[in-house]
Structure prediction request, 212 residues.
Amino acid sequence: MHLGVELDPGRCALLVIDMQNDFVSPGGFHHRQGKPVGAMQAIIPAIQLLLRELPPAMRRVFVLTAREPDGSDSHWRFHRILPQRVRASREAEGSDRNALRGTWGTELVSLLRPGPADHVVYKRRYSAFYQTDLELRLRCWGIDTLFFAGVATEICVESTLRDAFMRDFDVVLVSDAVASWDAAAHRATLHLVQQSLGAVLTVEEVRAITWR
Prediction:
């Protein structure tokens, strides 16, 4: 697939979402719960390629989840009706708390490191736009088009992408640079984005974009 338009790289940004040990690495929170992380590990080379080969004028933003160890910012504090995943987490480990500030689990995976010109945004909820300064930064930089990579496809990536679309950013989901523990949910998000929100491109298709 091709976008059919020329893009100004200075008006584009790549968001790399939640590529952190608790979500992606062996020994991380979700791996300890028995979830396979092979699909998460497999997208690391694709993200490295994007970071290395996208035009230098394009902003690169690493979005990381960082929650307070005392649980004071936990969104589950406000919910009595809990999803199955959260109930299962509590039964398995006695807690559903992960990506706690100051821990190894919150750190970016070792194969991905922000460069001197890259940016980091910390979030406490699924969407990177919720009560962060992400939108302010993007508006100040003159960004109007966002490319998405990272995990999990149908949770934090989709939540952020939907919020971006609602804020009138153009959105591009890089299909082989996002991953999930749930293959069916991953595919459903790709279909949803392609049908209703924006474009879904492979890394190679992104590399073939005609830049202004």
The longest strand covers residues 170-179. The chain has a mean pLDDT of 92.
